[in-house]
Design a protein that fits this description.
Number of strands: 0
Number of domains: 1
Largest sheet: none
Length: about 90
Amino acid sequence: MLGVVIVLKGFVEFVGLLLLAQGLVFLMSFGRHESNPVYRLIRFLASPVTRLVRRVAPRFVVDRHVPALAFVLLFWIWVALAVAKLRLQMPTG
């Protein structure tokens, strides 16, 4: 079980870093992010998570805010996985 938690935590960290990189490239491209190949690659890699969050999120959430919402949700999932990892590593008894 500990191995599954570690792998899931690593996956959440990877996707979180992708979303963080996407935001940074967005800020640094000064409005030309759609023509930036690095931005498009990062957006492609993070798109499964953002699509899932779009399906789960209420309709009033604007599409451009979905990556930020995905990052916040991934942060809380990461916190829960870190707590689970710590609890699984604690000796029993």
